[in-house]
Amino acid sequence: MNRLRLVALLPLFALLGGCNFVVLSPAGDVAAQQRYLVIISTALMLLIIVPVMALTILFAWRYRNSNRQARYEPDWDHSTGLELVIWAAPLLIIICLGALTWMGTHLLDPYRPLDRLAAGRSVPEAAKPLEVEVVALDWKWLFIYPEQGIATVNELAAPVDRPIHFRITASSVMNSFYIPALAGQIYAMPAMQTRLHAVINAPGRYQGFSANYSGAGFSGMRFAFLGLSDGDFDGWVAKAKAAGATLDRATYLQLERPSENEPVRRYSGFDPKLFDAILNLCVEPGKMCMSEMMAVDAKGGLGLAGIANTLPLAYDKYTRRGAVFGAEPGYVASVCTIEEAQALTTRAPAASARRQTAPIRGAGLPLPELSPRRPASLSLLLGSARPSNS
């Protein structure tokens, strides 16, 4: 019978062979340090969990109903030694976990530049980080290399043992930028910028994806991360420059629309201000940027003239994401002075639509236009809300 149980468990062990333990065996130094945090934290918690589970089984067996030799003490209610063990052990573990968390939070802060490439290897003073701008789109990833002058979709590459500095944002909804072999996940949010410093220590092809659900195409929002030697990275950049396509703002607005399972794309050039425009929600030509509106507010704002500016700065999540419903996108194209606004009002045609000044009655519908042909019963219902023209 025992052999049959062992044979039945063999398929389960076979399934474990397909597991990817990249989190416990990463290729980047930041992820490796995070691995030790996971292992040490788990071990500290097991110091309590394992004895408690073992004692639960021991007590259930020892004090079972059929064991007549178990000592019966119905009046026992206190043990100083047992109380010390019960309270001291968890307290010490909590102190250790707190200290470990505090050190890890500061040493592995994603905004903190790297001070080492690997254990025992500090970052050279002359080392220049590789700058990469990351944009989470629906449902794909855009990577911009300002120094190399290229951009890619769903493919990211970096030289081995060179610090990488990521600037991360999103176009519409929140996502999470995550390469398990490189470092921990960092959120990508529209109109906000997050940062990540990391390094890859071994060449290879690794997987990156979004770790935050963002819609129908979320499952296909994956990309390849390539750890390359310096020579191979230069060749990869040259291949991207040979693509010939340019990522200007019009091309980006088409790329931004929702699509699923996009293939790898490469662009040999891009608008140098594209990332800042994405970050400030002003990719469309002529649209006021969020940073410009903030500068206006910092100087005291525009009073009543600036009330309409808050809504246009919001992301149009309906039309921009391809929906057929929702209001048309609108934005502030320019700001005029009070004198210019008054001049425009003066030049406006005087024969505008007739305006109702009477209060709204009933179901919230506007009052009908008054005419001599109006039925007398309607006049009685309206009462003296408005004098008749007849």
**Overall average pLDDT:** 80
Architecture (CATH level 2) name of the domain at 121-279: Sandwich
CA-atom Rg in angstroms: 33 Å
Largest sheet: 6 strands, mixed
| Overall number of strands | 15
Question: Which word captures the global form?
Answer: elongated
The helix content is 25-40%
Contiguous runs where pLDDT drops below 50 for at least 5 residues: 370-390
Named CATH topology of the domain at 121-279: Immunoglobulin-like
CATH class of the domain at 121-279: Mainly Beta
Largest beta sheet: what is the strand line-up? 10-7-3-4-5-14
Count of separate DSSP helical elements? 10
The class by helix and strand makeup works out as alpha+beta
Q: Specify the CATH homologous superfamily of the domain at 121-279.
A: Cupredoxins -  blue copper proteins
Approximate strand percentage: 15-25%
N-to-C order of helices and strands: HHHEEEEEEEEEEEEHEHEEHHHHH
- What is the rounded distance between the termini? 104 Å
Protein name: Ubiquinol oxidase polypeptide II
Family: Belongs to the cytochrome c oxidase subunit 2 family.
GO biological process, one term: ATP synthesis coupled electron transport
Transmembrane segments: 37-61, 82-103
